[in-house]
Automatic annotation (TrEMBL), chain A:
This is Imidazolonepropionase. It comes from Chitinophaga terrae (ex Kim and Jung 2007). InterPro entries: Amidohydro-rel, Metal-dep_hydrolase_composite, Metal_Hydrolase, Metallo-dep_Hydrolase. Residues 338-399 form the Amidohydrolase-related domain. GO terms for molecular function: hydrolase activity, acting on carbon-nitrogen (but not peptide) bonds.
Automatic annotation (TrEMBL), chain B:
PANTHER family: ALPHA-D-RIBOSE 1-METHYLPHOSPHONATE 5-TRIPHOSPHATE DIPHOSPHATASE (PTHR43135:SF3). It comes from Chitinophaga terrae. This is Imidazolonepropionase. InterPro entries: Amidohydro-rel (IPR006680), Metal-dep_hydrolase_composite (IPR011059), Metal_Hydrolase (IPR032466), Metallo-dep_Hydrolase (IPR051781). Residues 396-447, 883-964 form the Amidohydrolase-related domain. GO terms for molecular function: hydrolase activity, acting on carbon-nitrogen (but not peptide) bonds. SUPFAM superfamilies: Composite domain of metallo-dependent hydrolases (SSF51338), Metallo-dependent hydrolases (SSF51556).
Length: 421, 1033
């Protein structure tokens, strides 16, 4: 088990955990339970990859060439790497320390603001996600109403250019709360009306931007309008952050009026309009199952079972997990969704291929299928259940990544101090 | 100089009268000219103005006040004859006379002699009632001014009140309403229109509010309307206009009250040490008065009563409006209540997405709130009614009627507005009934006062008439024969109500005409044929019985006319008495998931389960557990339980209930008293909120007990409380009794206010160095306090610290980094006590050996970190390392959401650190029981221990496990089937109430927009408001 050996041997300081170099030799992972990510499970299977791409998956694959690295996984489980959407990863190091926070820009409408260039590949948090099988993240700006543009990064990189997996994949629209008291919404007075006025302000901005882009020549360049071009060309998605039905109706309405590719982020009440979402072809990045119900009278397990309700209605959805350091638990959020109505493989899809589809990277990743990037996590047991989820190896684009992290190192230090085993 | 005239047709004295009174010290010439100018502007008749001038002085003038003009003494004797006089709620006198003189009642009764100098007013057909008394008012007192906004001001540690007053600005016992009272007729008018004649008025500001004055609502000089200078003393939990930081939580306000009772006692006996303290002096003086405590809800009512019990005070409780939800507990207070009638209005639930924002509990409250007085009557709890808190005082009578519609008896309503409040404030000798010698405060109405159609004509206060409604005083209804000359003679019928009569000509057809009455003037417009193009138009005077006047006929020719009274018309018997509305069931607690009937303890036999004993037997397969009388009675195979209810555990796992060592659920109005660095005197036990839905939600996650902690805003926080999740019980029922008491301490960034923004750099300590000194200082003071003699000032803060020194109270300390953990253990060692538990303790793994040596336990998070600087070295291996070193370790939540998945958080120690599954589960069951000193009765499945157990659908450490049944003390508090029933009950009950609200809207009642009212939940860092749950903000 060279993966395990690897992190024990590399227990140096966090600063010396280097990104891996490109895959040099073909890798054969044999005798594994392979969870493809699309629902299929292959017992005693083999997965092979070379030059960063998956080359074969199945029970009978071509024999390994002489130079290949062959690992007998002895019944361990192989999964597509987990993808975390709507993440603050690399944009915040300590939530209470302003100097380490790069997630909220000033101003209400900032479409030209881009998260990618602030993504800190040296964040100590990143490695704690990788060691739980999370290999990709959609790094998302959070301020104002139009907060800016997110990018998808892979979590083993020297700098943000290396990290970029899909650049500027979506624009983010935080719908002002139509009820009082929200961080993102107006307070006091006629809050619902103010919120709706703000939405209309965004609509007006969209209309003007669209008109502006019809004309090639302008006396003055408007960077905000320019930044809207990929959205209207459908090279970018619109991620609309909202939870209540009336807010989601706004999102649907925007999709229609501007002919946009819209995903709802949050969607706490999406179960109430699942059919409408399906019919409108709106996907959902669902708020984490590990939440309290939003209303006192809601079913106590409503957040746990919303995923199953969306699945049943045929809505394309994936799961989210608020924040950044917390996101190492995204797999367990999926486990909970499985406890409350999804099959385990559907739950896995909800943090892999569905996320890839929603983020626009499903051609590259999300399942363990031939031709896709070898973004792979190996676990001793069920990866979605914390009691059996120990990640022993992981690969990003075929590169075996170092699963060490600062926390393992601190643990080792004190295990030594106390002479524990 | 008071302007008085009897023909006023407006409500109460006119502006003109008021103006004249207010101007009474001004030179008479100027005054008169202004009066005239005013009157002419108002286009009043000259006659009226002249009348006014003639009567511009008055009998009740004070002897010390000089008269400007010619003295006009009058005795103002009136006799009201032939009335139905409701002397008091028990005594109704028919055809009786009320005689008043000089503002007081002289005689009342059927045989009352009418003095010769009395002006007689015939009140035939009318009712006379004592005017109402409101025992809770701030009439005539200016709104207290709130100081500069607190949020951006630096902290204020002491009172800003100038003078020899106490340390805390919220203790305003020195304020006397009588000193600051000023007659305010604009405010008095609506109260008089609502039937009130006397109010107990107090500045409703602060925790101790000083004294209230009893005043009438007459528009007279203050000297005359104040009838009791100090009639009561007032209290609340609300610090009001105080800008001082302490208290900034409900528990802080409670602690402040307690300490002030003790301080006042001490001041009385040892006052010299304190110097002059006018607040405490006043507090002591006020004690002999009736003590009125204003609360905002049912739990606060119980909290207030409990404080009263501690100090031998029986408060009169001014209620919040939802006390009916816990009427047995209200009865047990033995208090008299002052009930507001602020019934919530219907919400606009037309839009289903808006309707979703409204909780069932708030809809049920809307439905049931008007029943509150009836519920109190039925429970035999004495109460008064108050107009306080109505946004429109004029709605008061309508709301009394509504309360009557919901079951309150009219006699009780009258008592609650007269005798009870008067007696309560020891003034029944002056007001509250119509007995000779009392103030001439009475109402004249057209019928029984609480009937819908009854008109309140006049409210007399201290012998002054205030006309509420003049129309209808003369009831002209009946049959008349109209003779027009020249012209015909025909019959008319005058019907309708006395105040707005209608008229019809009776011929072959009944022809509706028009009648207008203005004082004694009458105008008629009568059709004489069907579809007549023009009417007979008559104008005249109302006589007694016959009317006469002139007019024009349909052709425009002048006529004379008379109308002769023939007979009264039979009243249509109206049997429209609306039935008392049928209300939905009460829930315990008052929440969608509440019980209609509390579940009972049962004998239970759980068969054939995998039993995680947490004892040396380990995990037993296919085992039965018998529960009797709330205890675990037997563990074994093939048990028989007699009549015990059998729960099939096949394929399921049974574990001890989860105990959350660090929780902030079920707490009202603030988890932190964050104003001072040491607040050992505040107690979570005072502020438990049994209505919190998170109790139920946690039961659904297998939690059976929660240790409710004060927050982490200060080095020495408040006293904590262990509760069992007995859903539906009151606060007292939730508490675990016979339990070693604990207290919350805290270290690090919160305590030194690192993340509180730039203004919070004043409070000591600002560094970890200072934190140590806070402890050394506090415990040094406590040691010295112990040595003081019996006459020492009792200090609740030092009492709690002294308990720690004497190993009678135990510490659970919020902590993160190793240096501070080490420090506190050193402080404890030097004062010879032990730190019982370090909670959070994210760097515990760095000092686990020291903790073991000291004997401290740990309650930590499974994997939290990076949320602030001091958790940068937090690791998920922490629990496993501490456990392996030999520290008693628990995993805790500090979070209402995570608490219901604590089993999963425990499971993370299998992943991070490789604990065995058995040991992992102990982190949330047996180990917290040990930390809380209750492992002799909780935390494992052992014969004799409390039957707090959970039946899981799967291995309890698995993400796929659900709590199928949660049992507390042998009571099934949660099971999946019952949960499904509750959900469908919520759905149908919501629908029923939404339909009722829609019907209310359709009827045209005003409705308010439905908006989201989030529940409050707390983490230990939440300073004041807590944060909102549900939608992630």
């Amino acid at each position: 088990m060279f993966g395990l050996a690897m992190w024990l041997h590399s227990a140096y300081a966090q600063e010396t955990i280097s990104p891996a170099g490109p895959q040099q030799k073909p890798v054969f992972l044999t005798n594994a339970v392979i969870h493809v990510g699309n629902g299929q499970v292959i017992e005693k299977g083999t997965i092979t990859f070379d030059k960063g791409k998956i080359t074969a998956v199945g029970t009978s694959v071509a024999a390994a060439p002489a130079d290949a690295t062959v690992v007998d996984l002895k019944g361990q489980h192989v999964y597509p790497g987990i993808i975390v959407p709507d993440s603050d990863l690399g944009l915040i190091e300590f939530e209470s320390v302003r100097a380490t926070i790069d997630v909220r820009e000033v101003g209400e409408i900032n479409p030209s603001v881009r998260s990618l260039i602030a993504y800190n590949t040296d964040s100590k948090v990143i490695n704690t996600l990788r060691s739980n099988g999370i290999l990709l993240a959609q790094v998302t700006p959070q301020g104002g109403i139009i907060s800016g543009t997110s990018s998808v990064v892979q979590l083993d990189a020297w700098n943000w250019e290396d990290a970029a997996y899909k650049v500027d994949n979506g624009l983010h629209f935080f719908i002002p709360r139509q009820n009082t008291g929200g961080r993102r919404g107006p307070n006091g007075g006629d809050a619902p009306k103010t919120a709706l006025d703000q939405v209309e302000g965004v609509r007006a901005f969209f209309r003007e931007a669209k008109a502006y882009l019809q004309e090639a020549k302008h006396t003055a360049t408007n960077l905000k309008f320019e930044a809207m071009r990929p959205l209207f060309k459908k090279e970018q998605k619109l991620f609309v952050h909202c939870d209540l039905v009336k807010e989601m109706l706004v999102a649907i309405d925007f999709a229609k009026e501007f002919d946009l590719d819209v995903t709802i982020v949050g969607g706490a009440d999406s179960w109430q309009i699942a059919d409408l979402l399906k019919q409108s072809n709106i996907s959902v990045i669902l708020t984490q199952p590990h939440s309290l119900p939003i209303m006192q009278d809601d079913d106590v397990d409503q957040p746990y079972k919303t995923a199953a309700q969306l699945q049943k209605a045929g809505v394309l959805f994936c799961l989210s997990n608020e924040g950044f350091w917390q996101q190492r638990n995204l797999g367990f959020e999926a486990g909970t969704a499985a406890a409350y109505g999804l099959t385990k493989e559907e739950a896995l899809s909800a943090v892999t291929i569905n996320a890839a589809k929603i983020l626009g990277i499903d051609k590259m990743t999300g399942t363990l299928e031939v031709g896709k990037d070898a973004n792979i996590a190996v676990s001793t047991g069920d990866m979605l259940d914390m009691k059996s989820s120990v990640i022993t190896q992981a690969f990003i684009q075929g590169r075996e990544i170092n699963l060490d992290n600062k926390q393992k190192q601190l643990s080792e230090k004190y295990i030594k101090k106390y002479g524990l085993q | 100089m008071i302007c008085y005239f009897s023909l006023s047709t407006k409500s109460g004295p006119s502006k003109l009268e008021t103006y004249m009174k207010k101007a009474s010290e001004k030179p008479v010439k100027a005054l008169l000219s202004r009066c005239l100018a005013y009157a002419m502007n108002r286009r009043r008749s000259k006659l009226l103005v002249l009348g006014l001038l003639a009567s511009a002085t008055y009998a009740q003038a004070q002897e010390t006040f000089p008269v400007n003009g010619i003295a006009d003494p009058r005795e103002k004797c009136f006799a009201f004859t032939h009335a139905t006089i409701v002397k008091d709620p028990q005594t109704v006198l028919n055809n009786a006379t009320l005689v008043i003189r000089d503002g007081k009642i002289v005689d009342v009764g059927p045989a009352a002699a009418i003095p010769k100098d009395a002006v007689v007013l015939d009140c035939k057909g009318k009712y006379i009632y004592p005017s109402f008394v409101d025992a809770f008012s701030s009439y005539g007192l200016a709104e207290p001014k709130k100081g500069a906004s607190a949020w951006n001001a630096p902290p204020q540690f002491l009172s800003n009140t100038k003078g020899a007053y106490g340390w805390n600005q919220a203790i305003k016992s020195e304020v006397n309403a009588v000193d600051i009272f000023a007659v305010d007729d604009a405010k008095a008018t609506p109260l008089r229109e609502a039937g009130f004649g006397t109010v107990l008025t107090q500045q409703q500001d602060g925790v101790a509010r000083g004294t209230a004055a009893l005043v009438t609502l007459a528009d007279e000089r203050e000297n005359k309307v104040i009838i009791r200078e100090r009639a009561a003393a007032g209290y609340s939990f609300n610090k009001g206009s105080s800008t001082q930081n302490y208290p900034n939580s409900l528990m802080g306000a409670i602690a402040l009250l307690r300490q002030t009772y003790l301080d006042a006692q001490w001041y009385k006996n040892q006052g010299s040490k304190e110097g002059v303290n006018l607040s405490l002096q006043a507090w002591n003086n006020n004690q002999q008065l009736p003590q009125i405590f204003e609360v905002s809800d049912k739990w606060d009512a119980l909290r207030a009563d409990k404080i009263g019990d501690e100090f031998g005070v029986q408060y009169i409780i001014k209620a919040g409006g939802n006390e009916y939800q816990r009427i047995n507990e209200m009865a047990a207070t033995k208090a008299t209540f002052i009930l507001p009638l602020n019934f919530p209005g219907a919400l606009d639930v037309e839009d289903p997405n808006d309707a979703r924002l409204v909780s069932l509990a708030s809809m049920k409250h809307w439905e049931m709130a008007p029943s509150q007085p009836a519920v109190f009557e039925k429970a035999n709890i004495p109460f008064c009614l108050t107009a306080a808190e109505l946004s429109d005082t004029r709605q008061f009578l309508a709301n009394v009627r509504k309360a009557i519609e919901y079951g309150l008896s009219p006699a009780k309503a009258l008592e609650a507005l007269t005798k009870t409040p008067a007696t309560l404030i020891k003034s029944y000798d002056q007001v509250g009934s119509l007995d000779a010698g009392k103030l001439a405060n009475f109402l004249i109405t057209s019928g029984p006062i609480f009937e819908e159609k009854t008109i309140l004509y006049q409210n007399w206060v201290q012998g002054h008439k205030y006309t509420i409604k003049a129309d209808g005083w003369n009831d002209v209804r009946g049959q008349y024969t109209v003779s027009v000359t020249p012209g015909a003679t025909f019959n008319v019928e005058v019907k309708g109500s006395p105040a707005s009569p209608s008229i019809a000509v009776i011929q072959a057809d009944t022809l509706a005409g028009k009648i207008d009455i203005d004082g004694k003037l009458v105008t008629l417009s009568l059709p004489l044929a069907k579809n007549a193009k023009s009417n007979l138009r008559l104008s005249g005077m109302l006589g007694t019985g016959d009317w006469t006047g002139t007019g024009v006929d349909t052709s425009g020719n002048p006529v004379k006319w008379t109308a002769k009274f023939v007979k009264t018309l039979p009243e249509k018997a109206e049997n429209k008495k609306s039935a008392t509305p049928v209300l939905g069931a009460l829930y315990y607690p008052f929440n969608g998931y509440g019980w209609e009937k509390l579940p009972q303890q049962q004998d239970l036999l759980i068969k054939n389960a995998t039993v995680w004993t947490n004892e040396k037997d380990g995990i037993l397969q296919q085992t039965d557990v018998l529960i009797r009388n709330g205890k675990i009675a037997q563990i074994g195979k093939n048990l028989s339980g007699g009549n015990a209810r059998v729960i099939d555990g096949t394929g399921k796992h049974l574990s001890a209930g989860i105990i959350d060592e660090h929780s902030h659920i079920a707490i009202s109005a603030g988890v932190n008293e964050s104003s001072q660095s040491v607040t050992a005197e505040v107690r979570i036990a005072d502020v438990i909120n049994p209505d919190d839905v998170n109790i139920y939600r946690q039961l659904s996650g297998g939690v059976t007990a929660s240790h409710l902690l004060h927050g982490s805003a200060n080095a020495i926080g408040g006293q904590s409380q262990l509760i069992k999740l007995r859903w539906g019980q009151s606060a007292e029922g939730l508490k675990v009794t016979n339990w070693d008491p604990f207290i919350k301490f805290a270290l690090g960034e919160n305590v030194k206010q690192s993340n509180w923004g730039d203004r919070n750099t004043v409070r000591f300590p600002q560094t970890r160095m200072g934190v140590e000194q806070v402890y050394v200082d506090a415990f040094t003071r406590a040691r010295e306090y112990e040595k003081k003699g019996p006459n020492r000032r009792r200090d609740l803060e030092l009492d709690a610290l002294s308990e720690i020194l004497n190993h009678k109270r135990f510490i659970t300390c919020h902590s993160y980094v190793q240096s501070e953990i080490n420090m506190l253990m050193h402080v404890a060692d030097s004062f010879h006590f032990r730190v019982n538990t370090f909670t959070h303790i994210l760097e515990g793994y760095k000092v686990a050996d020291k903790m073991k040596a000291h004997g401290a336990g740990a309650g930590t998070f499974a994997d939290w970190w990076a949320y602030k600087m001091e958790v940068q070295d937090a690791i998920p291996y922490n629990a496993a390392i501490m456990q392996k070193v030999g520290v008693v370790t628990a995993i805790n939540s500090d979070d209402a959401e995570m608490a219901r998945r604590l089993n999963q958080e425990a499971a993370k120690t299998v992943k991070y650190g490789g604990l065995s599954e058995e040991d992992a589960l102990k982190l949330v069951t047996l180990n917290p029981a040990r930390l809380l000193h209750v492992d002799n009765r909780m935390g494992s499945i052992k014969v004799g221990k409390d039957a707090d157990v959970v039946l899981w659908t799967d291995n309890p450490l698995s993400i796929y496990a659900k709590a199928a049944v949660t049992i507390v003390d042998g009571i099934v508090e949660f099971d999946r089937e019952t949960d499904l029933q509750l959900r469908s009950r919520i759905a149908s009950e919501r629908n029923r109430l939404i339909q009722l609200m829609l019907a209310e809207k359709k009827k045209g009642s005003p409705v308010k927009k439905a908006t989201y009212v989030p529940d409050e939940i707390y983490h230990c860092e939440d300073l004041q408001g807590g944060h909102q749950q549900g939608i992630v903000y």
